[in-house]
Amino acid sequence: MISLVCVSQPTCWTRSRKETLDDIQAVSQARNSALNVTGVLIATTTHFAHVLEGPKDAVESVLTSIMSDPRHCRVNVVRRTPIFRRRFPVWRLARMDRGRFASFALAGTLKRLHTAPDRETLHHFDQLTDALARSYHTTLT
């Protein structure tokens, strides 16, 4: 099993931004469910970040789909690593795109991941996505 982080730039917002993200999420959830892939899509106005987890071939298949999706450009894989357990075990594709957190806390991080990823920026991104996963698990209990 692997975890893959990729960052891209949106090429356009077909219809409205919300409808575009709804479309991406709906198609991705169906595909990811069939492939046993889990993860999260984080969207700011200038970048998309995907964290994908699952069998290597399945995750690579999803990546190929993202790279051929005309709504994404300049797809940059910033990390591909083996994992023993998932950080997002129940999310076929969760989405975070609203509020100040996505706009403020993540915009700079996603820009750095996209243009010049480094260890510190990846660590910061991991901390933010871990907090996101914990907040989800806390709301379930």
TrEMBL record:
One of its GO terms (molecular function) is blue light photoreceptor activity. Gene3D superfamilies: 3.30.70.100. PROSITE patterns: BLUF. Residues 1-94 form the BLUF domain. It holds the Pfam family BLUF. This is BLUF domain-containing protein. It comes from Croceicoccus ponticola.
